[in-house]
Amino acid sequence: MIDAVPAGTTVPADARATRRVTAIEAAVLVGLLVVAALTRLPGLEARGQWDADQGTDMLVLRSLVEDGVVPLVGPKTSIGSFHHGAFYYWLLAPSALASDADPAAVTLELALLGIAAVAATWWLARLLGGPVAAAIAGLLMAVSPAGIDASTFIWNPNPIPLFSALAFAGAILARRTGRARWWLLAGAGAMATMQLHILGAVILVPLVWALGSELMGRRRAGDADAVRGTLLGGLGAIAVIAAGYLPLLASEATCGFAEARGIVAYLGAGGREAAGGALGRIAIVGVRSITWPFAGVITDRIVASAIVALIVAGLIGVAALRTRTDRDDTAGDRTDRDRTDPGATRWLLGGLLACVALLALFAPSLAIVTPGLPNDHYHNLLDPVVVALAGVGIARLWTRLGGPRAVAGRALAGGIAAVLVVIGVTGWPPAVSPDGGWPLADRAAAQVLSYTGGGLTALDGLPGFKNDNALRFPLERHGARLLDPATDANGATWFVLVCDPLFDEATGKACGGPAEDAWIQATPGLPATTLMTRFDAGPRRVLSIYAPAPYLRTPAPADRRSLSPRPGPGGWAGSVPWKLRQGRPGWRAGRTAGRGAP
Fold first, then answer.
1. pLDDT per residue over 445-488, tens digit each?
2. Which residue has the higher pLDDT, 490 or 154?
């Protein structure tokens, strides 16, 4: 049972009335959306990090826009043997088509989806706990550092909270109203969640649980029409989810079922090596899941994350607690003081626990926090659930206590809400991406072209598992003619290497000399080359330009490091001039790692 209204009964008039949005609620929602917009939209172009993943996605969208190549699969998974769903690219296609594949426009679309996630979380919390819970949850989501970060850069898991919130809200309304159309919403939200990240499939567990309990309840009540409607709604949801995989089916039919073979091979090899025991992984993933929306990466803010973990765990317990008043009140007798739906709240808590356990078992890498890599987003389908349950817990403290305890309850609720807001605000991502974002990558590409004069260029990325797409996309957008050095080295008049210093220690070959020298020695058929110049385009890219030797142009002095932007008042992206300098940049001692999984 996931709802306070017994199966087979109609919803009382009072319960129906609570679903109508009042003018005050509408005004609060508008205010929350304004806050969400103000925290996400200003300076958007320079806020998001830019690396290989972003370059890869934009190359796919550019191919769609300019060449009409419709993607049938999504981005590669981090293990690289199979892909996420194509829905991600189709979702971003409108902004890419309208802007000629401009990353700023695509990021704007993702920001708008992030703002919509605030409204969806507000709605989910309102279904669980009424207007007060909705206002609190909406505010917490609007100021969430994780939500803000996910709204400002291009990456496939970022829109998931919007769709998972819609899926959970659809299931609650389907159970509450008995109307099949809400199962279609639940199915659409689940389809998008699963397509945007393969681990999103865990959302099916609570949704199937909800559908199964609904069918059993309607059947026990002897309501044949309700059973038929629920079956139709469930079948419709299944059809929506299946429709999302039609592009994958078309791809498999034309590519020898490469995706299926990749998944089978991954599972046959035992997947990723587990980190620690199952219970330990579940505990770590659980703590990360409940702290991530409020504090961000747990290892970046250990004290704040510990405080959040204690507070949110307590709030979730308060939200799911079934009091004597809950047992005594019927759905129609509920007072305006407490609009909590304990059945739906406990179902969401059960879904949260089930999803955490499944993520810990099937994605053991979530138990390890790797600086610079984007694994912290893989559980973000739970963000709306965690925030909504926290909002319900605070609302119950605010509204449930009466008499002389009312003042104490409201003071406690207000204080807890203030602490969570302060922790969120102090954890906001920087106004300018530490790696310079898209603007710096675009300027770096222009600088390369100004040096090479548009000559035929072989481009490659270092280390070997890191592709060059962070620079390839802006180079192609500027009209560069690029070759693959592994196959077309003899036809190139220039050689450009893009090296990521994040992996210097892991590879044992530092960017800025050793890594590039090793690449030259290991590349078969490469002609003799001369280093012409080398510069750093932010802390995650060292660019080296070589020409076949002998070359008429005077090569760069051995100690000349780069034509590189120095960090200005606005960070790397705020530095427009390119200046000569000696030695490595100051960020080498304590650089901030950006995204870009191998």
1. 999 999 898 889 999 999 988 899 999 999 999 999 898 877 77
2. 154
Mean pLDDT of 322-327: 58
CA trace torsion 519, 521, 523, 526 (10° rounding): 120
Q: Shortest CA distance to 388 belongs to which of 150, 162, 121?
A: 121
- Give the alpha-carbon dihedral of 448, 453, 456, 459, to 10 degrees: 0
Cβ neighbour number for residue 514 with a 10 Å cutoff? 14
Q: Determine the average pLDDT of the residues in 43-68.
A: 94
Distance, CA of 230 to chain centre: 32
Compute the distance between CA of residue 586 and CA of residue 588 in angstroms, rounded to an integer. 5
- Count of residues for the chain? 598
pLDDT at 269 over 70: no
In whole angstroms, how far apart are CA 423 and each of 118, 146, 302?
18, 12, 12
Global pTM?
A: 0.86
Task: Report how far Cα 257 is from the mean position of its chain's Cα atoms.
Answer: 28
Q: How many helices (H) and strands (E) does the chain have?
A: 24, 7
Confidence of residue 4 (pLDDT cuts 50, 70, 90): very low
In the chain, % of residues over pLDDT 90: 60
Torsion on CA atoms 205, 147, 567, 426, rounded to nearest 10: -120
From its phi and psi, is residue 578 left (phi > 0), alpha (psi between -120 and 50) or beta?
beta
Structure tokens at 15: 């319960």
Cis peptide before 463 (omega within 30 of 0): yes
Tokens of 541: 């890219």
Which comes out higher in pLDDT, residue 585 or 230?
230
The encoded tokens of residue 376 equal 């912290």
Using DSSP bridges, classify how beta strands 482-483 and 457-462 pair: parallel, antiparallel or unpaired: parallel
From the list 523, 532, 522, 525, the residue with the least C-alpha distance to 496 is 532
One DSSP character per residue, 311-338 reads: HHHHHHHHHH---HHHHH--GGG--TT-
Q: 515, 509 in Cβ contact below 8 A? A: yes
What local confidence, expressed as pLDDT, does residue 506 receive? 87
Q: Are the beta carbons of 171 and 341 closer than 8 angstroms?
A: no
Two tokens, residue 186 = 């639940």
Pairing type for strands 542-548 and 529-536 reads antiparallel
